[in-house]
Amino acid sequence: MSVSLVEVSLAAFVILAAIGTAIFRDVMAAIVVFAAYSLGMAVLYTLMLAPDVAMTEAAIGAGVTTILLIVTIAKTNRSSAEELIEVIHWPAVVVAGTFTAVVAWTVFEFPTIGSDEAIAWSNPSVTQHYLTYTYVETGVTNAVTAVLAAYRGFDTFGEAVVVFAVGVAVLVVLDREVFT
What we know:
Helix content is 72%, strand content 0%. By secondary structure, it is mostly helical. It has 2 domains: 1-113; 119-180, no CATH class. Helix 6 (143-151) crosses helix 7 (153-175). The longest helix has 25 residues, at 51-75. 8% of the residues are buried.
C-alpha cells in the first residue's frame, strides 16, 4: 500500500489537532482546533474516496458542532485562563498511545483503495449484488448513494430525524437563560 506525502502530512495534521484539542485548557482554543481536526478528517475521507462521509464530517463536525460549541461558550461564563495547557497525565498518555499504535497497525492491513481485495469480505454475495444490480434496481449510478438512499432509505431517514431532533433540542436548551 503506497501512501503519498499529502496523505501522511494530512494524517499528521489530524493527529496533532486531536492532541491539541485534548490538551488545551482554553475552551475556545480547543473548539477552534477541534474544527480544524474535523475539517482535516473531511479532507482525509475525500482522499480515501468516501465523499459521503467527508461531506457529513464537514457539515456536522466542522460546521454544526463548532457553531453549537461557540454558541454554548457565548451563553456561559468563562473563567479566567490560569493555564492554557493541561498538565499531562502520563498513564493516560500511555493508554492512548498504545491504543493509537494498535489502530495504526491495523490500518496497514487494509487493502489498497480500488484493488480487487477491497471488496467487502464479510458477505461478498450481498456486496456483489449491490455492485451488479444497483443501477438496474434504483437508477442511481453510485453504489454508496444507492445503498444509503434506496436500499437503506428508512435508516437514513431515521438518522436524519435524530440529527434534526438533537438540533432542535440544543436550540431549545441554549435559548434558556440558565447560566447567569
